[in-house]
Amino acid sequence: MNLLDVLILGVVEGLTEFLPVSSTGHLMLTARILNLAQTDFTKTFEISIQLGAILSVVLASKKSIMDIRVIKRVLTAFFPTALLGLILYKIVKNVLLDNTDIVLWALLIGGILLILFEKIHHEDDKGIDDLKKISYKKAFLIGVFQSAAMIPGVSRAAATILGGLVLGLKRKTIVEFSFLLAIPTMLASTIYDVCKSANTFTQTQIGLLIMGAGVSFVVAMVSIQFLLHFIKNHNFIWFGVYRILVAITFWFFLK
C-alpha cells in the first residue's frame, strides 16, 4: 500500500461512512480495484481509518454529546452490536471481509430494499423529533438493526436509519442518532482490532493508518453536512439506485 492508495481509501471512507451505501463494502471494492491484497494490515486499515470519521462526528455533534440523556440512549443502542461484535469478530474479519461476493449481493439486495421501503414508507407527522424522546426500547431495537451491518455491504447507516424510520422516528432525528451511534460503534471496533493487530505492523504501516484517518476526517466533515442538507428535501431512493449500479458494474466489468 502506497501514499496514493492511502489517499484514495481515506477519501472513500470519508465520503461513504455516513451515507446508506456501506463504507466497508466500498473500501473492499476500492482495494480490489487498486489490486490491494486483503492482508491483515489492509483489513485493519479499512477499520482503523474510521477514527477520522469518528472525530468528524464528535465535532459536528458537540451539543448532543454533552447531553447525558442522549448518551444513555446511544449506549443502549450500541449494546447489541457490541455483544454480537465480540462473538462474531473472527468470522467477520477472517471470512466476511474476504468475500467480495457477499459485498456485491448485500449492495444489490440492500439497494432494492431501500427503494421499496421509500416507495411504501410515509413519515408520520407525529413521529419522534427529539433524540431525548427516543425510548430505551426503541434505542435498543435500532442497535439490533445496526448489527446487520456486520455483513460488509449492508451499511451501518442504512440499517440504523431504516430501522429508526420503521420505529417511528423522524428522518432528521434518526440520521442524527445514526451519527452519534457511529461513535461508540466505530471506536470500539477500531480499538479492539488495533489492539489485536498493531504489534504486527511496522512504523511505516502505523503512519499510513494515521494518514488514512486524517484524510477520512476531512472528507467526512463534508459528507455529514451534505447528508443533513440532502434529507431536507429528498429520500434515499437514489442511494438505492446507486447501490444497485455499483453491484452490477462490478460484476460485469471488474470481477
Q: How would you characterize this protein structure?
A:
This protein has 255 residues and is mainly α. The chain has one domain (3-254). It contains twelve helices and no strands. Helix 4 packs across helix 11 (203-230) and helix 6 packs across helix 10. It is globular, with a radius of gyration of 17 Å.
State the distance separating the first and last CA atoms.
21 Å
Query: From N to C, what is the helix and strand string?
Result: HHHHHHHHHHHH
Number of strands: 0
Sheet with most strands: none
Number of domains: 1
* Tally of individual helices: 12
Task: Note the beta-strand portion.
Answer: under 5%
The unreliable regions are none
Percent of residues in helical segments?
over 70%
Radius of gyration: 17 Å
Structural class: mainly alpha
Overall 3D geometry?
A: globular
Q: Mean pLDDT, rounded to whole units? A: 87
Topology, pairings included?
Layout: H1 3-16, H2 23-33, H3 40-48, H4 50-60, H5 62-65, H6 68-94, H7 100-120, H8 136-147, H9 156-166, H10 171-197, H11 203-230, H12 237-254
Helix pairs in contact: 1-2, 1-11, 3-10, 4-10, 4-11, 6-8, 6-10, 7-12, 8-9, 9-10
Brief synopsis:
The protein is mainly α and about 260 residues long.
What key phrases describe this protein's structure?
255 residues; globular
